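Run log // design_07
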């Protein structure tokens, strides 16, 4: 039971960290987080999706 709880905590933390550090640089992942995850993550903390929104408004995937 303890192992399952630790696994869920690690997966949740990984999901948040990917959203904060990886997704802003990956256009497809950024779009998925904006469409599906940020609505729920904003209830926890608006700072989680802030880097994704900044990267989306900056248009970092356009060259």
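design_07 sequence
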């Amino acid at each position: 039971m303890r192992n399952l709880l630790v696994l869920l905590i690690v997966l949740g933390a990984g999901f948040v960290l990917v959203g904060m550090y990886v997704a802003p640089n990956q256009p497809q992942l950024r779009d998925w987080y904006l469409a599906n995850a940020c609505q729920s993550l904003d209830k926890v903390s608006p700072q989680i999706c802030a880097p994704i929104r900044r990267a989306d408004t900056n248009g970092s995937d356009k060259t």
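Residues 2-57 form one domain.
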